[in-house]
Amino acid sequence: MTTEQVQLVKKTWRMFRGVSPATVGDLFYSKLFMDNPHLRKMFPADMEQQYQKLLDMLNSIVIRLDRLDELSEEVAAMAQRHVQYGVRPAHYKLVGSALLWTLQKGLGDEWTEAVENAWTVCYSALSDTMIKSTCLSEGAG
Ligand code: HEM
Q: Where are the domains of the chain?
């Protein structure tokens, strides 16, 4: 990511954090499950805790975006847990689309092409790291 992209993601994330976790969670998971109904069964019936976990994890990543190497162990462990949840590499694209859509709704007029590009690069970097770390630990990479 370029320095400008890191700054854009951080700035828009600060704005986005003003929206309540319940609203963000509702938007994000409604979109994800509307577009991909087959993913619903992977998640618990009660999604309330899930909203906060997702936001907290994204928050810790955004805060340290310019030094992602500090997070590599945390990200690898998270990726490994996701394998246990039944998550496959192809799922990351679906989650990424729902995430970008949610950010777009939450940011309104602040959602510009540059912001979209910055978040796309950010999510790709994170999901690529997660996918690669599980491929390596499974001996397939
Ligand atoms: C960069 C992408 C992602 C981030 C930051 C993320 C973050 C998280 C976090 C923080 C948790 C809480 C539990 C834990 O830490 O292990 C979690 C759980 C979970 N995530 Fe993700 N996730 C991502 C991608 C995905 C994808 C692509 C899927 C596929 C549908 C997925 C499905 C799940 C499921 C099924 C759970 C467990 C729910 C439960 O049983 O409580 N996640 N995720």
A: 3-137
pLDDT in tens, 12-22: 999 998 888 88
Residue 105 to residues 77, 100, 101, 128, 141, Cα–Cα distance (Å)? 30, 9, 6, 25, 36
Could you give the C-alpha distances from 79 to 88, 97, 126, in angstroms and in order? Answer: 10, 19, 10
Does the domain at 3-137 match CATH 1.20.272.10? Answer given as no
> Ligand 1 within 6 A of 93 CB?
no
Ligand 1 atom nearest to CA at 94: 27
The reported pTM is 0.92
| Ligand 1 contacts CB of residue 38 (under 6 A) | no
DSSP 46-59: --HHHHHHHHHHHH
